């Protein structure tokens, strides 16, 4: 395991090409050795079928033209993982109450701290390391982790943000991950062979990144980390004019482009029943990361500012409203401490979605009995990829009134029209409803 001497300010495309070559090799090594767990799963589409706004802006239009095909992946083994997590939490509680039988070395362990598992290690520079996700729902799910501890309750650092975008851009430009060498090698090991659907997704997929920030965001680890997944077209889906569509939620980016009007610092709110802020990206082409860091942090600060202004406006509405106290999902008022939100990034946009709670309670019927299941919602869901832990949960989601939008609205925060109007007048936020 060797570490590059490159710093975050001078990473060149050649170094990132080596990252993807190493990723291919690490994936084959990890799947062959069993270091990566690949649970069986089923993927279904859950179209929302909402009407698209007409040019007249009256809300009428062709049904489904702007709809998002939400994906629901059913992974039964997630139920076992959830039960193990609940047991660990119970152990932690017992320890806090003075129980001596709990093994303190396993409770709250920093799983991304060195020494790294050699079979999961991919690549490193002076400040970050790339590791395979041990529990891979899709092939080559990998993580960018700082070597020095940083909290997942804080935003990603400028260096991490810039390196994230460099990885996305390098993949989009080179598609090194799809090299013929990998294709020939992967078929030589049965545990590494992709299914036909996975192979198609790899061939025409797009890498996107996400960051779960805060206690209500669906984050599962304490140490800061960015996750990378490949998302592809499913069924009869087609790409948009600008290549959007592989990441489901980016089917709505055309609305932002129409309203952009050349203003690079514009922050947009997607036409959804919850707050979903977007900044379009067209960063400098310079290989120096300093300019890229400044550019991306300016975009992130704009998104964070929009989130805060929406929260303040909602609280102001609460004090002046005769309707009484607003719920957290309406006002954005959550527990004390840093705000929780999900951050998504593709080569074309950065997204920020404020959160009001982590889980959605779903009524599920199994063996003739009804019970409440908890769906943990993270950035993947807001990108368009939801997870179900059983077939019963999948069926319940498919029959849920409002579908995915109902789930994401309950765990997100309702939009604030006054903020939309105020920010639009200042030229910092544009929307199309």
TrEMBL record:
Domain ATP adenylyltransferase C-terminal: 272-413
Domain Ap4A phosphorylase 1/2 N-terminal: 66-153
InterPro entries: Ap4A_phos1/2 (IPR009163), Ap4A_phos1/2-like (IPR043171), Ap4A_phos1/2_N (IPR045759), ATP_adenylylTrfase_C (IPR019200), HIT-like_sf (IPR036265)
Entry's Gene Ontology molecular function annotations: ATP binding; ATP:ADP adenylyltransferase activity
Signal peptide: none
Region (Disordered): 318-341
Compositional bias segments (type: Low complexity): 318-332
Entry's Gene Ontology BP terms: nucleotide metabolic process
Name of the molecule in the record: Uncharacterized protein
């Amino acid at each position: 395991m060797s570490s590059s001497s490159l710093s975050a300010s001078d990473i060149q495309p050649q170094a990132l090409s080596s990252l993807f070559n190493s990723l291919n090799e690490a994936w084959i090594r990890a799947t062959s050795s069993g270091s990566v767990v690949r649970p069986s799963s089923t993927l279904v589409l859950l179209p929302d079928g909402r009407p698209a706004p007409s040019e007249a802006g009256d809300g009428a239009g062709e049904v489904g033209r702007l709809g998002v095909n939400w994906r629901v992946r059913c992974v039964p083994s997630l139920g076992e993982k959830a039960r193990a997590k609940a047991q660990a939490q119970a152990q932690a509680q017992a320890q806090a109450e003075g129980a001596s039988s709990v093994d303190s070395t396993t409770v709250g362990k920093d799983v991304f701290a060195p020494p790294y598992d050699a079979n999961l290690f991919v690549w490193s520079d002076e400040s970050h390391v790339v590791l395979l996700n041990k529990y891979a729902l899709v092939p080559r799910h990998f993580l960018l982790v700082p070597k020095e501890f940083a909290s997942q309750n804080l935003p990603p650092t400028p260096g991490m943000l810039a390196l994230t975008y460099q990885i996305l851009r390098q993949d989009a430009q080179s598609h090194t991950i799809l090299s013929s060498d990998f294709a020939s090698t992967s078929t030589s090991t049965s545990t590494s062979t992709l299914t036909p659907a996975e192979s198609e997704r790899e061939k025409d997929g797009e890498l996107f990144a996400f960051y779960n920030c805060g206690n209500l965001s669906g984050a599962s680890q304490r140490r800061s980390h960015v996750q990378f997944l490949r998302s592809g077209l499913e069924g009869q889906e087609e790409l948009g004019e600008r290549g959007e569509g592989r990441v489901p939620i980016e089917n709505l980016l055309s609305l932002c482009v129409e309203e952009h009007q050349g203003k690079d610092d514009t922050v947009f709110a997607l036409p959804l029943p919850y707050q979903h802020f977007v900044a379009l990206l067209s960063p400098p082409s310079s290989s120096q990361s300093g300019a890229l860091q400044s550019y991306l942090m300016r975009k992130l600060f704009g998104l964070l500012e929009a989130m805060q202004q929406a929260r303040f406006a909602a609280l102001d509405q609460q004090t002046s409203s005769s309707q009484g106290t607003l719920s957290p999902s309406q006002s954005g008022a959550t527990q004390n401490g840093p705000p929780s939100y999900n951050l998504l990034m593709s080569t074309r946009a950065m997204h920020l979605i404020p959160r009001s709670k982590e889980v959605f309670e779903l009524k599920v019927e199994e063996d003739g009995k009804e019970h409440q299941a908890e769906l943990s919602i993270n950035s993947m869901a807001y990108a368009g990829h939801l997870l179900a832990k059983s077939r019963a949960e999948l069926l319940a989601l498919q029959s849920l009134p409002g579908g995915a939008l109902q789930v994401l609205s309950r765990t997100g925060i309702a939009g604030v029209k006054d903020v939309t109007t105020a920010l639009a007048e200042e030229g910092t936020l544009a929307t199309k409803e």
